[in-house]
Amino acid sequence: MTRISQARARELGLLPPRESKYRSRKATVDGITFDSRKEARKYEELKLLKRAGEIVDFELQPEFELQPGFRDRDGNWVRPIKYRADFLVRYHNGRVVVIDTKGYRTKEYAIKRKMLLYRYPGIEFVEE
Question: What's the domain of life for this entry (predicted)?
Fold first, then answer.
């Protein structure tokens, strides 16, 4: 008897697609795949605000370094800790807002959010 992995069985259509860990459903808009429908809706909203002239621009998936990488005592490289938000929005008055669309707040997210606010005290952070 030949055995196949669950991943291979899904590829062949023998098993249903795996459900997301937090039950979010991916959504595609303008050829961009978002991790959730909520994030995709926010993207569409920001596009409308830009078209209407309410905002200057917005950026997808901005990344912030929370702790730089370093070498430990044995010379091994320890990777930096980074936080990737969903959007960064720029307004006409120079205001910059970082937006994160959350359905479920993990412990990792809570820690990284605190680190972000500590490392970048002037940042305006909005969670939706």
Answer: Bacteria
Q: How many domains does the chain have?
A: 1
**Three-state secondary structure of 23-44:** CCCCEEECCEEECCHHHHHHHH
Per the domain annotation, does 68 fall within a domain? yes
pTM score, whole prediction: 0.76
Q: Which amino acid is at 122?
A: G
pLDDT digits (tens, 9 = 90+) for 50-80: 999 999 999 999 999 999 999 999 999 999 9
Of residues 44, 20, 23, the one with CA closest to residue 32: 44
Distance CA 46, CA 52 (A): 10
Dist. CA 96–CA 4, nearest whole Å: 50
Which helix (H) or strand (E) segment holds residue 71: the answer is strand 70-71
What is the average pLDDT across 19-45? 83
The answer to which of 86-90, 103-107, 121-125 has the lowest mean pLDDT is: 103-107
